[in-house]
Amino acid sequence: MSGPPAKKQRFQNKKKFYQPSKKQYLEVGHKGFLATCNFNEKDCVRECYNILNQYADELYGEESCEELKANDQVQEDAKTEQPESDDIADALQKQIDATQQKAKQTKRRFQVVDTGATNCVFIKTTLADPTAMTKHIVKDIAETKKQKTRYLLRLLPVEIVCKANNKDIVDSAGQLCDKYFLNEPTTFSIVFNKRFNNDISRDTLIKELADIIHAKNVKHKVDLKYAKKSLIVEVIKGLCCLSVAEDYMGMKKYNLVELGRHNADYDGKSDKLPSKESNEDKKEVEEKSGSDTKVDNIKESCDETKDECENKN
């Protein structure tokens, strides 16, 4: 006897349609914010949007309503358009091209961009100066002593994105040096990090960048611990992010979690643990009080002896 007939697989002839990815990737010419996290990129992106929108509304006002309504207008136009020709495929292609062009014209204030590296998020922005906004965020957290992020660790401004080769990096760094290191003498440092790139030599690049800074003003001095200005070089695969940060080491390397945690621990310890000076003062007070009580006891004993002698006489 033959076995039961094999069951036919469902959806055997189902067509597979290719859906293009909606991700945007880091490109040359972008500017924004570079954020780092620990294996929670989605939560990090959410916190980036929250904190950036909060401070951007305080500094520059709320985002314009025209940009927010642009996406709704694109969908309405796509629905109202009807195919004029008999060929349905051509009509659909025209609608797709029209929606893509309108979508490119709409730009949000902050937009996440894929860097291709793990635990590294880039937020593209339309703001003119991301460095000023990052400086304001770091100072506010340091002054208010409130921890506002959990997954977002470090938030760095990025003014220039160029290709990861020595020539482009030196040329782009020269533009930043003209902006920050041209006038008054100051102390500086160079912070270099690279991810998924072995073509760039760290030592040679740092020497070339230091020569450029000294060429702008000979009185500039290197200070690796307490530099007033730090040239940040972040290499990610084939691209390089450049910026200049003020008081980078003093502000815990722009680590928002460390800033809030350091201040919170300091306040808690200062309230709970007494200082050494207070303990010494207490000891001195106790010793003085003990000595005073001894003197009073001696005086009382002398008075008693005098009274006894007078009574005998």
UniProtKB/TrEMBL annotation:
Q: Where is this region: Disordered?
A: 265-313
Question: Record's superkingdom?
Answer: Eukaryota
- Keywords, in A-Z order: RNA-binding
Matching entries from PROSITE patterns are given as:
THUMP
Domain THUMP: where?
A: 140-246
**CDD domains assigned to the protein according to its UniProt record, in alphabetical order:** THUMP_THUMPD1_like
SUPFAM superfamilies per the record?
THUMP domain-like
Output the Gene3D superfamilies linked to this UniProt entry.
THUMP superfamily (3.30.2300.10)
Q: What is this protein called?
A: THUMP domain-containing protein 1 homolog
Species the sequence originates in: Musca domestica
Its taxonomic placement starts with:
Eukaryota, Metazoa, Ecdysozoa, Arthropoda, Hexapoda
